[in-house]
Amino acid sequence: MARSNFKVFAEAVDSSKVVSDAEYAVNTQRIGGVVPGLAAADLHNKLYKQATIMAAAMAQVLVEQGQDALDSDYAGLVASIKKTFLLSLNGEKPDAKGNLQKNFVYSVEGKKPDSSGNVSLNIDYLNAMSFVGSVVITRDNINPGTRLGGTWQLLQSGRYVRTAGAGYPGGTMGGSDGFTLGVNNMPAHSHEATIYGAGNHKHDIYVSNWQTHGGSGGAGYQAHERRWGATEEAGNHSHQITIESTGNGEKVTFEPSYLCLYFWVRTA
To answer: Domain Baseplate structural protein Gp10 C-terminal, which positions (predicted)?
Structure first.
């Protein structure tokens, strides 16, 4: 429980014994200082009461914010006053070190905040949120201009987004929905082949002077003789080979998993 020992001087004194506000305002001793032995009691009462009531009021504010207000601890009293000033900002409390993060608004476009620190303004949301050339993405086909204002153009449908950079300036379009593979794009592969026969043919061989029985022997005379003959050529011929083909040369399409959204670009 926070404490305070500040009290109001002449708290219960009769008002007749305290100089009035009108008299106090023009009193020469208030203005020029008290002359020893000449200051009236009611003037002293006014002086002390006014000073002490302000001190007591400040002390009460400190106590209500959980800060001690003791005249025996000047440094602690200063620290308590600082914390209390911070605590009065819309009821927010500082941390253990007495720090409080707060955005102070004195005026915005000439408008002053209310007692709660709020300022009522008409903000240009269109230019605050977007600028000409910016893109807004929507799930539904609703032109952002109907709510934000400005002129918006729906980008061409059926296109994927690619970040701009070197070689790809912003706003350029390219690519295609499909492509046809060339020879260099195909993987290594094989084909089946069938060879057909070229028809029947034959070869001839002849043997002459072939004896099936022995003869009489004699000098330089053989019992029998035989000869090997050459076969006749059948002539050149050919075979037919067929290699199966496949494929229709259709374009290849590549389409990853997608979510369709509308892209709007602000043009004016």
So the answer is: 132-267
